Each structure stands twice: as structure tokens, then as C-alpha cells.
Amino acid sequence: QVQLVESGGGLVQAGGSLRLSCAASGRTFSSYAMGWFRQAPGKEREFVAAISWSGVMTRYADSVKGRFTVSRDNAKNTVYLQMNSLKPEDTAVYSCAGDRYAYRLGSTISRDYAYWGQGTQVTVSS
């Protein structure tokens, strides 16, 4: 059974930084692309970032490009989201997701992911 567990969320002032982690278990982590999505109250879930199975390719939403960095440590079965220069509009529940199929580059579409973590709250105060 695949499990994804996020950590690292919290309350931070605008301009601050947070690093989210997502620990995976239950399948060969290094074979699957991973994604980060977020959902703010009253809004639909949106794509934030994705990283390919190898870690070579990354993708970002325009709203976070240049501020967020996605990375992975396959030895630790963990994917990270480093968030810098945080803005109040970044406030949301952030969830990591595991790709449905192996050896892909990382999708921006939520239905391409089969496994989801429970989410971690990020709140940015102004």
C-alpha cells in the first residue's frame, strides 16, 4: 500500500520561507514522478510543482516560478518543496502526489496522480 506523508507546514510571515517534505512508502519511489498541489479555501485544487522520476526535469506553476523549488532524495524516498518569498496568496493546504505510472516526467494534471498525501497547512500572514 502506497503511503505519502507530508510535513513542514505552518504559519509564516510574508517574505518568509518554509520547506515541505513528503515521505513515501509502499512502492519503488525512484521510479515515479511526484507532484505538489495546493487548495485554498473556496478554491479548486491547483498544480504547484512536479519532478520527474529521475529528478532531472521539474515543472512549476507560473505563480510560484522563481520562488519555489521541488527536489527529491531517492535514497530517502522523500520529495521536497522549498518555498521562498512566500505571499499571503500562497496560503493553502499543500498535498504531495505520486504518479500513476512509472518513468514519466511529471504532470501538471491531478488525475495523472494515483496517490495523495493528507496535506499540510501553509498559512502566510501579511
Low-confidence stretches: none
Number of DSSP helical runs: 0
Label the structural class: mainly beta
What's the N-to-C terminus distance?
Answer: 40 Å
Helical residue percent band: under 10%
Count of individual beta strands: 11
Q: What composes the largest sheet?
A: 7 strands, mixed
Choose one word for the global shape: globular
SSE succession: EEEEEEEEEEE
Strand content: over 45%
- Compute the CA-based radius of gyration: 13 Å
Q: Return the average pLDDT rounded to an integer.
A: 97
Folded structure, characterized:
- With 126 residues, the protein is an all-beta fold.
- It contains no helices and eleven strands.
- The strands form two sheets. Strands 2, 4, 5, 6, 9, 10 and 11 form a seven-stranded mixed β-sheet that branches.
- 33% of the residues are buried.
Q: Quick summary of this structure?
A:
This protein has 126 residues and is mainly beta. It has strands spanning 3-7, 10-13, 18-25, 32-39, 46-51, 58-60, 68-73, 78-83, 92-102, 113-116, 120-125.
Features:
126 residues, 11 strands, globular, mainly beta
Q: How does the SSE layout of this entry go?
A:
Blueprint (H helix, E strand, L loop, with lengths): L2 E5 L2 E4 L4 E8 L6 E8 L6 E6 L6 E3 L7 E6 L4 E6 L8 E11 L10 E4 L3 E6 L1
Parallel strand pairs: 2-11
Antiparallel strand pairs: 1-3, 3-8, 4-5, 4-9, 5-6, 7-8, 9-10, 9-11
